[in-house]
Amino acid sequence: MEDVAAAKRGNQKIRDMVLSMAVIGGVVAVIYTVIPHDEKADPLKTVDYRVELSTAQRSAPYPVLAPQGLPKEWRATSVTYRGDEGKAWHLGFLDPNREYVAVEQSTAAPDKYVPKVTLAAKNTGRTQRIGDAAWQVWKGEKYDALVRTDKGATTVVLGTAPDDRLTEMANSLKAKAPQGS
User: Fold this and answer.
1) Band of pLDDT at residue 180, cut at 50, 70 and 90
2) Which of 83, 97, 160, 177 is the most exposed place for a label (fewest CB within 10 A)?
3) How far apart are CA 114 and CA 128, in angstroms?
4) ∠35-41-46 over CA atoms, to 5°?
5) For residues 5 and 137, what is the distance between their CA atoms, to the nearest angstrom?
6) Which of 156, 154, 153 is closest to 138 using CA atoms?
7) pTM for the whole structure
């Protein structure tokens, strides 16, 4: 008799568990259909970097650079200024082809800073003239980069984008805050 009661309790436990799972599944289905979601929406958000740029320009001991005049298809996706880490300025973008391009600046020692931010790119020994400045050309497995040291800071334009996009970014860099970016 005791075995029959135990088997009945076991069956009730399984039945209760199945019913609980059905209720939970129903709640999840209702939540999924009620909460609006756009599966075609771009998961990358564009950031407005004007406040951080202004802060960095006031705090950094070097002219903080940001692009001016880039087409609106360039999207800023990340921005930071770390005064406690070599006065480091970072501004990340996606170019019109969704390739990554970033501007990195710091007062840290270039021989350590550049390999760190480029994830181990190497100086090719070549230079490229962009505007009125000579930039070193660096190549790496992850990122290629254009590098120059001026006015107490190292500026690195790096990314997965082709060389012409890195050049476009480097050519757009100005020390004044961009208008309406």
Assistant:
1) very low
2) 97
3) 17
4) 115
5) 80
6) 156
7) 0.75
